[in-house]
UniProtKB/TrEMBL annotation:
One Pfam family linked to the record: DUF2470
Gene3D superfamilies (alphabetical): PNP-oxidase-like (3.20.180.10)
UniProt domain DUF2470: residue ranges: 172-243
Annotated source species: Actinopolyspora saharensis
Lineage of origin: Bacteria, Bacillati, Actinomycetota, Actinomycetes, Actinopolysporales
Protein name per UniProt: DUF2470 domain-containing protein
Coiled-coil stretches noted in the UniProt entry, renumbered to this chain: none
Highest taxon above the source species: Bacteria
């Protein structure tokens, strides 16, 4: 009887969604049923409860549309793109869509929203609110996550109950450092790949508390592979231990 290889553990959908939101990648907002007002916010921020703040130029048509619908009849979708921190043939790692009601808050509420965002994500662009830019608020009623792991629908309560990956704000710098300065280290991970993929170009794709994700750019296309840690990690010391274990550190191997 053949034993099936166990699939590495992965973060749950809500945790992955929170991580994409926390990383704050490129965003686009689209009113439901209307592609003409598709907008790239000057700044966006998704709060832990699934609501989102959007900063748009005063003259953007979406601001006028929201002003004409003060009771929240305007619905829209915020799309947040999670891109790899290194240059890849296909850079998008995941997409998060938040669907809900778009509102243009009154000046006092807009100011409070700016302060709320500034506490979590200080950014000089927030100073433009009320001075050439308007704050819109998205009150999410549903979320959809699509990435290499799965496609999942989420309720705002599920999103709010999860926590983002503890390393998500450091991941970009770490992976770029691996790509530029430690190609030999990345190469050591080849031994974990299926034999059929070992001839491809191996690239660092992602890092979270459950393991390392690699992208194999091969002649027949791109293939994503997850290499799991022996256990989920919670801090940099545990992460360092697991990474050295994957690289085959003799001292750690002797401790098993």
């Amino acid at each position: 009887m053949h034993e099936t290889a166990r699939r590495p553990a992965t973060p749950g959908p809500a945790e992955r969604a929170r991580t994409i939101a926390k990383r704050g990648g490129r965003a686009t907002v689209l009113p439901s049923g209307d592609t003409s007002d598709r907008a790239r916010p000057l700044l966006h921020h998704v709060h832990a409860d699934g609501t989102a703040a959007l900063l748009l130029p005063d003259e953007h048509p979406l601001v006028a549309t929201a002003w004409q619908n003060p009771r929240g009849e305007l619905t829209g979708v915020l799309e947040v793109t999670d891109s790899a921190p290194v240059r890849l043939r296909e850079p998008v790692r995941g997409l998060l869509w938040l669907t809900g009601r778009l509102r243009l808050p009154d000046p006092e509420t807009a100011h409070a929203e700016v302060l709320r965002v500034a506490e979590q994500r200080p950014d000089p662009r927030l100073l433009d609110a009320g001075h050439g830019a308007s704050v819109l608020r998205l009150e999410s009623v549903s979320l959809v996550l699509a990435d290499a792991e799965s496609t999942d629908s989420l309720e705002p309560a599920e999103f709010a109950a999860a926590e983002p990956d503890p390393f998500c704000l450091h991941e970009d710098g770490w992976l770029r450092h691996l790509e530029l300065s430690h190609r030999d280290v990345v190469g050591l991970l080849t031994r974990y790949l299926p034999v059929r993929l070992r001839g491809g170009h191996l690239r660092p794709l992602g890092l979270d508390r459950y393991g390392v994700r690699l992208r194999v750019e091969a002649a027949d296309g791109d293939h994503d592979v997850r290499i799991g840690f022996s256990r989920p990690v919670e801090d940099s010391e545990q992460l360092s231990t697991e990474l050295r274990r994957l690289m085959g550190c003799p001292f750690l191997a002797a401790q098993r």
